[in-house]
Amino acid sequence: MSITPEDIKRVKGLGCLVDKRYGDVFNVRVITRNGKISVSAHRAIADAAERFGSGEVAMTSRLTMEIQGVHYDNIDALIAFLAEHGLETGGTGPLVRPVVSCKGTTCQYGLVDTFSLSEKIHERFYKGYHTVTLPHKFKIAVGGCPNNCVKPDLNDIGIIGQRVPKFDISKCKGCKTCQVELACPIKAASVKNGIIRVSDDCNGCGRCKNKCPFGVSEEYLNGYKIFIGGRWGKKIAIGKPLSKLFTNEDEVLDAVEKAICLFRDEGVAGERFADTVNRLGFDYVEAKLLK
Description:
Blueprint: H1 5-12, E1 16-18, E2 25-30, H2 39-52, E3 57-59, E4 65-71, H3 75-84, E5 100-101, H4 114-127, E6 140-143, E7 157-165, H5 179-183, E8 189-192, E9 195-198, E10 220-228, E11 240-241, H6 249-266, H7 273-280, H8 282-290
Parallel strand pairs: 5-6, 6-7
Antiparallel strand pairs: 1-2, 2-4, 3-4, 7-10, 8-9, 10-11
């Protein structure tokens, strides 16, 4: 079957990427919400791969599932079959891409409900903004803690759970062996002149919570840190954190929406959000997002 460039462009917009080894074979991306799907959805994807593809499924770096080896003339039937099981394809083009999150909701180190937040991001921005063309793709990642397992600071927008200590220094006894100091994995807490101190290196992991037997480390401010302008690939950029600690999901969602709208309105076609931030200036962009 002869495939035209227009055919390739049409199905790419549906999440179907041409297999470079063949002229009429595609790999089709099935959207997941943060990589977590039901067993019945897994069964449907496996069934679809056997019926319409090569019988193989690959995971992408964005936690979508990619059905391999689908001939062009099977694509529409595959998409219809998936739709019958509540599944959709996509995840390509200059749009908000499917959100990626870690398992912070269930992980022992997770400080925020990553499943809840990423579900809301998926509905509000991947689906809600799906007809909004941007200057380039826009990637969002949610990390439950500063372990950065899904590399939030290497995304256009990265969200990381935080537990910022508010030590009650009046309770500090200046112990020779300080349990708070021992608990800090990055050595940001230390006893100096008989008092526990925390340096600016503190990443808000919260590992020191309740470690002090005298109650120094009981109070914390829980929230989210947002990084903007990250990127991986041929040209890597590490996102820079906004100065505000966001204390609830609504604040986070509003900031993400402002970032998407700023990219839509002030970005230049073909540039990533990192380039937009650099061109406009971080202070300018931060002011827009925090206003």
